[in-house]
Each structure stands twice: as structure tokens, then as C-alpha cells.
Write a structure and sequence with these properties.
Blueprint (H helix, E strand, L loop, with lengths): L2 H6 L7 E3 L12 E3 L14 H16 L6 H8 L1 H20 L4 H22 L3 H14 L2
Antiparallel strand pairs: 1-2
Helix pairs in contact: 2-5, 4-5
């Protein structure tokens, strides 16, 4: 499976574990599935709960960092490095969207951006539910 296909399946992970640290050209290879890949990107395993599962995995890497863990290494490098990765991923989203690289590539890059943003939230001790509450409050104001 190509790195971009792996990233495309990021939203479907039921549980994930980081593999060896990668350079930015291999961003999509952060995770390997423990239970094999499930069907297409619209499978029932994908959804908002996936973010909560991913949050727990990231937190577990912070609390008990396995050797060779990409997430643990990124957390150890600190917020400046995490923010650089977020900037890099944001640029890749824009390049994919404006460069005519197709929807699959945009989805792949957005998954990488969301992932790194979640690592930043973890590094700062901000639970995902705070971001979700902020989105809900904004939605309620818009009604």
C-alpha cells in the first residue's frame, strides 16, 4: 500500500500504533493497522469517534512512550517541532487542493493535518472535547 493510501485509511483506524519515524515524504506511514484495513473510506468504523480513539492512542504514547514511536518522538521534541509539522501539513493541504492533485490526496493531507493538530493538543494538555465544545458553541451561535 502506498503512503498516501495508508493516510487515506487513517480515519478508519480502530486502533493504531506508530511505526518507525518518517520524513515528510512518507507522512502517510505513521500508522499500521493492528486489525487489518477495513473496506472503503466510508466504512462504519470511520466517524467522529475515530478522533477520540486517535486521541487515546496519542495520549498513551505520551504517558508510556514506546521505543521508535513517531508520536513519542514528536512530543519529546516539543511544541515548536509539532507546530512546524502543522505548518508543513497545512501547506500540503493547500498544494493538494489548489494543485489539482485530486480529492484522495486532499483527504490524505487533511488527515495528516488533523493528526498533527491532535498531537499539539495532547502536548498542551488540551482534550479534544474542548475543541468539540468550541465548535458546538459556534454552531449554536449561528442558529
Amino acid at each position: 500500500m502506498t503512503p498516501h493510501a495508508q493516510a487515506y485509511h487513517l480515519a478508519q483506524l480502530n486502533i493504531a500504533r506508530p511505526v518507525a519515524p518518517l520524513d515528510s515524504s512518507q507522512l502517510a506511514g505513521f500508522f499500521s493497522r493492528l486489525d487489518g484495513l477495513a473496506g472503503d473510506p466510508g466504512a462504519a468504523s470511520a466517524g467522529p469517534a475515530m478522533l477520540e480513539i486517535l486521541e487515546r492512542v496519542i495520549e498513551s504514547r505520551k504517558v508510556d512512550p514506546p521505543a521508535g514511536s513517531y508520536v513519542a518522538g514528536l512530543l519529546q521534541k516539543g511544541q515548536p517541532q509539532i507546530c512546524r509539522k502543522i505548518g508543513e501539513e497545512a501547506a500540503e493541504v493547500m498544494t493538494a487542493a489548489l494543485g489539482g492533485e485530486g480529492d484522495a490526496r486532499v483527504v490524505s493531507e487533511v488527515a495528516d493535518l488533523w493528526f498533527h493538530t491532535m498531537v499539539l493538543l495532547s502536548a498542551r494538555g488540551i482534550p479534544l472535547r474542548r475543541v468539540l465544545a468550541e465548535l458546538a458553541a459556534r454552531h449554536a451561535k449561528g442558529k
